[in-house]
Amino acid sequence: MKFKALAIDIDGTITxxxxxxxxxxxxxxxxxxVPVVLATGNVxxxxxxxxxxxxxxxxxIAENGGVVTDGFDREPIVSxxxxxxxxAFSFLSQVLHMEKxxxxxxxxxxxxxxxxxxxxxRALLETTGLDVEIIxxxxxxxxxSRKINKGTGIAKMAELMxxxxxxxxxxxxxxxxxxxxxxxxxxxxxGNADNVAKGIADYVTSTTYGDGTxxxxxxxxxxxxx
Length: 226
Hints:
This is Phosphoglycolate phosphatase. Mg(2+) binds at residues 9, 11, 173, 177. This protein is an alpha/beta fold. An eight-stranded mixed β-sheet has the order 5-4-3-2-1-10-11-12, sandwiched between helices. A four-stranded antiparallel β-sheet has the order 6-7-9-8, covered by helices on one side. Helix content is 34%, strand content 19%. β10, α6 and β11 (186-189) form a beta-alpha-beta unit.
């Protein structure tokens, strides 16, 4: 099957662990004949800058699906679940020391430094009845709505592009990519991916981080899938 678009995570998938952009991966993404969607847990301004620098501007799923835009100057579609996330943070921070990151830029979720007991936080959260979850992407910890994820983000993006979700190949590495990988027509996990992401992927690269993405694109092109 030939797919019509590619959705790809940024940190840990196009970059290495310290967020240095893999230039081989960027070059291969830039050369594709299909639209490339950047799907990240990071904020919109970061993703917009990355899309410009990589050369795939500017279809973006940001904040783990909470923010979606199909053009650099387009008004983004922003979910309205931040208040429940704020309520969860207010409750948890009475017991645990939690430091917010990017708080002035986040529109749909709360992101925290990775220096507290996430299992304790999850156990406390279960007592609240709030429809939010805590996920660890290895770069930060996110308090986010269960209703929003990269899977809902790719569905909205497909709608904006006049495509089906099954028209997409998705590439990722972390727990926040699972819904996107599961929804896409073909899913690839890079070699450094979490085991749960590898478990649902149709193809797992032998190489890691951005080298894995370069390998994935070579594979897709060799198989006539893009």
